[in-house]
Design a protein that fits this description.
Elements lengths: L4 E7 L2 E9 L11 E2 L4 E2 L20 E6 L2 E5 L1 H6 L7 E9 L8 E9 L4 H14 L1 E9 L2 E10 L2 E7 L21 H13 L12 H15 L20 H28 L7 H11 L1
Parallel strand pairs: 1-7
Antiparallel strand pairs: 1-2, 2-8, 3-4, 5-6, 7-9, 8-11, 9-10, 10-11
Helix pairs in contact: 3-5, 4-6
C-alpha cells in the first residue's frame, strides 16, 4: 500500500518522520447506468442550465453563489492567494484529555508509520500519550486542505484521526428534544435488565454488513441465472405504537433469551461444518468494490 502523505510530527523541538496510511477502506459496490436495449454504458455530459447545450472543459470556470442566481468567478490565482502552505508536518498545538473530546468531532483515521531514524522518538511519544491518557491536537495540510487532527496511541503505534472544526458541526439545539417524561422505577429497572441481558464482550468481527452480503449473493445469482425471476420479498409488518413499556421490555427479554440460545446452537453447528469457499464471481465482486 502506498502512503498518502509523508512528513513529520512536530511539537516543541521534537520532529518525528512519519508516513500516513488510510486505516479504513470503502467497499461500496459500484454500479453503472446502462441503456436497457443493448447495455451500453451511459455517460454524463456537462450541460448549461440556460440553453441545455453541452459545455467544453475550456469554457468552464469556478464560481461562488453569494446571492440567489448571482455568482463571482474564482480563478486559480485567487485560490493561490489564500492557499495554506503545505509544510509536510503534523503540528501539535496542545495536548488534551481524550475524555474531554466529544466523539462527534472525530472523522477519519489514518495509521502513522515511523520512517527511518524516527523509531525511538515515535515510541517515546506513543508511550507518553498512553501513560498520560492524553491526545495531541494538531493541524495538518493534506492535498491543499488544512485539517484539525488528533494524535492517539493505538496498540503499538500512533493513529492520526482527522477531526471536524467546531464550525462544521450542527448545533444540537437545532433539533427537537424529547418532551419531559417521568420514568417509573419499574420501567427503568426493566430497561436496565434488558440491557444487561443483551450485554456481551465487544467483538468487532461479530458484526457483518448484511445488506452488502445479500447484494453480492443477489448479483452472483443473476450472473449465474440472468433469466430467473426473483420472488418479491414480503413486506415487514410495522410495529404499532408502544403503550405498555414494561410489558414490551419483558417480552423483549424473553425473545432475547430465545435468540441467544438459537444463535449459540447455530454457531456450534456452523463451526462443525467446513466453511465453503466463496465463488469466483463473488471474489471478483469484492475485488472490484475494494478497488
Amino acid at each position: 500500500m502506498r502512503a498518502i502523505w509523508k512528513g513529520s510530527i512536530s511539537f516543541g523541538l521534537v520532529n518525528i518522520p512519519i508516513a500516513l496510511y488510510p486505516a479504513t477502506h470503502t467497499e461500496d459496490l459500484k454500479f453503472r447506468l446502462l441503456r436497457s436495449k443493448d447495455l451500453s454504458p451511459v455517460n454524463y455530459k456537462r450541460v448549461a442550465e440556460a440553453d441545455g447545450k453541452e459545455v467544453p472543459w475550456d469554457q468552464i470556470v469556478k464560481g461562488y453563489e453569494y446571492e440567489k442566481g448571482k455568482f463571482v468567478i474564482i480563478n486559480d490565482e485567487d485560490f493561490k492567494r489564500v492557499d495554506i502552505e503545505a509544510t509536510q508536518t503534523v503540528d501539535i498545538i496542545n495536548f488534551v484529555e481524550l475524555d474531554e473530546v466529544n466523539p462527534v468531532f472525530f472523522h477519519k483515521p489514518y495509521y502513522m508509520e515511523p520512517q527511518k531514524g524516527g523509531d525511538r522518538a515515535y515510541v517515546l511519544l506513543r508511550e507518553a500519550l498512553e501513560a498520560s491518557g492524553k491526545i495531541g491536537i494538531a493541524k495538518v495540510v493534506i492535498k491543499t486542505r488544512q485539517h484539525l487532527a488528533a494524535l492517539k496511541p493505538q496498540d503499538d503505534g500512533l493513529m492520526l484521526e482527522l477531526m471536524h472544526f467546531a464550525a462544521e458541526l450542527r448545533d444540537v439545539e437545532d433539533f427537537r428534544h424529547p418532551r419531559e417524561a417521568k420514568i417509573a422505577k419499574k420501567e427503568l429497572d426493566m430497561a436496565k435488565a434488558l440491557i444487561n441481558s443483551m450485554t456481551e464482550k465487544w467483538d468487532p468481527e461479530a458484526y457483518k454488513d448484511d445488506y452488502r452480503e445479500a447484494l453480492e449473493d443477489m448479483i452472483e445469482e443473476k450472473v449465474k441465472h440472468p433469466d430467473k425471476e426473483v420472488p418479491k420479498k414480503a413486506a415487514k409488518k410495522r410495529p404499532s405504537n408502544v403503550i405498555d413499556l414494561v410489558s414490551v421490555l419483558q417480552e423483549s427479554m424473553r425473545e432475547g433469551k430465545k435468540t441467544t440460545k438459537s444463535a449459540k446452537k447455530s454457531s456450534s453447528a456452523q463451526a462443525a461444518k467446513k466453511k465453503p469457499a466463496k465463488s469466483a464471481s463473488k471474489k471478483r465482486t469484492r475485488a472490484r468494490a475494494a478497488a
